[in-house]
Amino acid sequence: MLGRLLPRRAVTVLGLLAIVAIAVPGMAGVVAAAPPTTLTVSSPTDGSIVTTATPTFTGTAPPRTTVDTWPVGEAMADPAGHWAILYDYGLTPGPNTVTLHNYACDIRTYDLSLPSCGPPTSTILIHLTYVPTTAAPVVSLPGLVVALMLTVTAALMLWYRRRHAPEA
Asked: Whole-angstrom Cα distance, residue 165 to residue 80?
């Protein structure tokens, strides 16, 4: 019936597409996601409490655009729009604000200080609280055993001296 409505080549192409859709699990109904159109920050989120002075910021931006955190550095969004920047400038203990800018230029070919790059297309302020963690002292098992042996030896020596001390 389909052969009467469509030319033979169209039926063949539709048949091949149906075979591909059936043969590849999970392909039916898969639609490619649209690339991001604005700067977003996935992690750390605004208002977060972080325990490292050098968090890694991640998020999405329009593909092949620049994300900048002055004075730390910049990253370029990949073709899917994903980016990541290690904030190695270092947060100070307590509240911090990190500013992220998105520029519609490629950092590999433009100097961000030149007007050709233009003003940021979007800016996000992320407010973080850095709470340094205090590490507990590290005690090794051999060190603990030696300390215990010295304590027991000292206690036995004291007991022995008192027991065998000459009476005055």
From this structure: 85
Single-letter code of the amino acid located at 36: P
H helical segments located in the chain = 2-5, 8-23, 141-163
What is the Cα–Cα distance from 164 to 82, expressed in whole angstroms? 79
How many degrees, rounded to 5, is the angle at CA 142 between CA 137 and CA 147?
Answer: 75
Question: What is the CATH code for 40-130?
Answer: 2.60.40.10
Output the six-digit token pair for 44. 């750390």
Indicate whether 84 pLDDT > 90: yes
14, pLDDT greater than 50: no
Q: How far apart are CA 40 and CA 43, in angstroms?
A: 9
Contacts of 39 (CB under 8 A, 6+ apart): 59, 60, 61, 67, 100, 101, 102, 121, 122, 123, 124
Radius of gyration of the chain from Cα atoms?
A: 33
Q: What's the chain's average pLDDT? A: 77
Q: How far is CA 36 from CA 5, 61, 79, 91, 138, in A?
A: 41, 6, 10, 29, 46
Q: Is the pLDDT of residue 15 over 90?
A: no
Alpha-carbon span 47 to 103, nearest angstrom: 24
Residue pair 69/100 in contact (Cβ under 8 Å)? The answer is yes
